[in-house]
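#struct-pred

JT: dropping the chains for the assembly here, can someone run the whole complex?
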Amino acid sequence: MSMRIHEEQIKTAHPTESLKALRLKRQVYRFSEDGDLEKRCNKCNEYWPADTEFFYSNEGKGDGLSGYCKACYIENRYPTGRGSVGHKFGVHTNKSGERHASD
Ligand SMILES: [Zn+2]
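RK: done, full complex below.
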């Protein structure tokens, strides 16, 4: 007996029938010309094959795939061109600059 290792284990979306119907209605899903299920990325609004080659696996979602395609997910997680702009911090100012010299 030998263990088989799947180098590329692509998982396809696995929504419930009702979720699938709803998403087809809302055009989150569509079928390609080949009849494959495609999913629209929430971010770039492009359709990609609904599997883990194009979407990250996310079992917390209804179909097991992230809402963003991989490219958008990476961009969203690691946005470019953003420094620490908007970083707020309270500046504590000391009003009494006087020092009491003790005798
Ligand atoms: Zn995208």
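JT: nice. Residues 31 and 90 are 53 Å apart (CA to CA). The mean pLDDT is 81.
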